[in-house]
């Protein structure tokens, strides 16, 4: 880490380069671990995420924070909440292809999630930093060019993630040391401890994985999320062609509460992968949706907010966590992400919506 006498108020921009929802694909097409072992859908969750509800479901002497169905998943032995992994493993091929498509799109600069860290002292410990979260419709590239992955890539910013919204379209967020675009989703009380960044923006952050994904327009609207990752020193290219010290994130994770209503409704943006689906999306009367809905509702293991924990309420959300890595980058202009497909639509012609309480 840098000499504190030389560093004050650093502003870092870090673009996600890979995500890990706990699925992998091996040579035989089956779910695998990173060392090649098979991953049954029923296997314990990977050690990604946190104990969001201060309860250890299924642990010896443990309790639940809300009323679960008999099919809800257990926490791991440390009480971590990450039932969403079971959903992605059950999706099998769709889950595998989705994770691979997201990673490929992030690396190719098609879309991304960008984390901005401001007010950082460059040390192993900093009790007062700010973390902003942006979604991006991709890197600003010349025709035929590719991302450089050296800290010079400029990522566009979705106007929904900027105070002022659509009125900010065309604004260059890099100006004023990256402070030209006030963030909609932010934590002014984030901190760094022993080199690990910890942020907890509230009440909710939509983690949007683009409009060009093979997996559709997946949006994880996570309530009360935690963003955690190890800041690892690296170097970047400067605009003048020199080298400057910077940081990247390794062993990152995002965890939060994915309300089942938001999850079910968002599935309408995901194409049905069945060979005979005929362009249908996973919603409404679609056969895949009819199978997945009761499964998803049976996985509900947490409430949508910590304020509802331990109040004898029925679980209405799924705990979700995913791992990530992020590399140095720059903020670009505000440019909207294309509208996501509406799928089968709602009964009034609007956006499809569903809940576990509806038949």
Brief write-up:
By secondary structure, the protein is α+β, with helices and mostly antiparallel strands. It has helices at residues 84-90, 93-108, 175-178, 260-266, 287-298; strands at 10-20, 112-120, 126-136, 154-157, 185-193, 196-199, 204-208, 219-237, 243-259, 317-328, 330-334. The longest helix is centred in the first third of the chain and has 16 residues, at 93-108.
Topology (SSEs and partners):
Layout: E1 10-20, H1 84-90, H2 93-108, E2 112-120, E3 126-136, E4 154-157, H3 175-178, E5 185-193, E6 196-199, E7 204-208, E8 219-237, E9 243-259, H4 260-266, H5 287-298, E10 317-328, E11 330-334
Parallel strand pairs: 4-11
Antiparallel strand pairs: 1-2, 1-10, 2-3, 3-5, 5-6, 6-8, 7-8, 8-9, 9-10
Quantity of strands, as a count: 11
Mean pLDDT score: 83
Q: How many structural domains?
A: 1
Compute the separation of the termini in Å: 56 Å
Order of helices and strands: EHHEEEHEEEEEHHEE
- The value of Rg in angstroms is 20 Å
| Spatial order of strands in the largest sheet | 1-2-3-5-6-8-9-10
What is the overall silhouette? Answer: globular
Could you explain how this protein is built, in words?
The chain is α+β, with helices and mostly antiparallel strands and 359 residues long. The chain has one domain (10-34, 45-334). It is built from 5 helices and 11 strands; from the N terminus they run βααβββαβββββααββ. It has helices at residues 84-90, 93-108, 175-178, 260-266, 287-298; strands at residues 10-20, 112-120, 126-136, 154-157, 185-193, 196-199, 204-208, 219-237, 243-259, 317-328, 330-334. The longest helix is centred in the N-terminal third of the chain and has 16 residues, at 93-108.
């Amino acid at each position: 880490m840098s000499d504190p006498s030389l560093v004050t108020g650093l502003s870092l921009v870090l673009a996600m380069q890979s995500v890990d929802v706990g699925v992998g694909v091996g040579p035989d097409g089956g779910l695998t671990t990173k060392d090649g072992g098979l991953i049954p859908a029923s296997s314990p969750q990977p050690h990604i995420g946190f104990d969001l509800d201060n309860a250890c479901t299924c642990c010896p002497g443990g309790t639940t924070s809300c009323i679960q169905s008999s099919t809800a998943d257990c926490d791991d032995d440390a009480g971590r909440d990450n039932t969403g992994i079971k959903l992605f493993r059950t999706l099998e091929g769709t889950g595998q292809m989705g994770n691979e498509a997201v990673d490929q799109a992030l690396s190719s600069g098609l879309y991304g999630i960008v984390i901005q860290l401001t007010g950082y002292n460059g040390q192993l410990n900093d009790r007062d930093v700010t973390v902003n979260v942006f979604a991006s419709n991709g890197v600003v590239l010349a025709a035929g060019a590719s991302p450089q992955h050296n800290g010079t890539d400029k990522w566009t910013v979705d106007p929904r993630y900027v105070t002022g919204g659509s009125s900010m379209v065309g604004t260059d967020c890099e100006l004023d040391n990256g402070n030209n675009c006030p963030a909609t989703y932010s934590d002014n009380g984030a901190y760094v401890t022993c080199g690990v960044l910890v942020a907890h923006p509230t009440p909710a952050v939509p983690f949007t994985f683009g409009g060009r994904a093979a997996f559709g327009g997946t949006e994880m609207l996570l309530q009360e999320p935690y963003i955690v990752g190890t800041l690892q020193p690296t170097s970047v290219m400067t605009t003048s062609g020199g080298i400057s010290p910077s940081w990247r994130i390794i062993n990152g994770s995002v965890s939060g509460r994915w309300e089942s209503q938001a999850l079910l409704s968002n599935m309408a943006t995901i194409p049905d992968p069945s060979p005979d689906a005929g362009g249908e999306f996973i919603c409404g009367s679609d056969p895949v949706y009819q199978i997945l809905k009761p499964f998803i509702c049976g996985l509900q293991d947490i409430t949508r907010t910590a304020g509802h924990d331990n109040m004898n309420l029925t679980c209405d959300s799924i705990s979700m966590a995913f791992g990530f890595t992020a590399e140095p980058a720059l903020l670009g202009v505000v440019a909207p992400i294309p509208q996501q497909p509406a799928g089968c639509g709602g009964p009034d012609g609007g956006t499809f919506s569903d809940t576990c309480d509806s038949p």
